[in-house]
Design a protein that fits this description.
Order of helices and strands: HH
Subcellular location: Membrane
Distance between the termini: 83 Å
Shape: rod-shaped
Protein name: Small integral membrane protein 15
Strand content: under 5%
Keywords: Coiled coil, Membrane, Transmembrane, Transmembrane helix
Largest sheet: none
Membrane topology: Single-pass membrane protein
InterPro entries: Smim15 (IPR027877)
């Protein structure tokens, strides 16, 4: 496995045929882009769900404190 020869081949290919090289590179990286987008979307949904749950808990705590204050009055 000669990495130097392979690297020279890739550089030569990119110099001789830049559009073909870029097309191949983008096609090779497309699954990674799609996976990144899917994971980012999933992370956003998880963060939104956690924030919604925290707001719900906070509202519940406020209502409990309000009810305790009304009982003591």
């Amino acid at each position: 496995l000669d990495i130097r020869a392979w690297a020279e081949y890739v550089v030569e290919w990119a110099a001789k045929e830049p559009y073909g090289f870029l097309k191949t590179l983008i096609l090779a990286l497309m699954p990674l882009f799609l996976a990144s987008a899917a994971l980012s979307w999933k992370l956003v949904k998880m963060i939104e769900a956690r924030e919604k749950e925290q707001k719900k808990k906070q509202k519940h705590q406020e209502n409990v404190l309000k009810a305790k204050r009304l009982k003591t009055d």
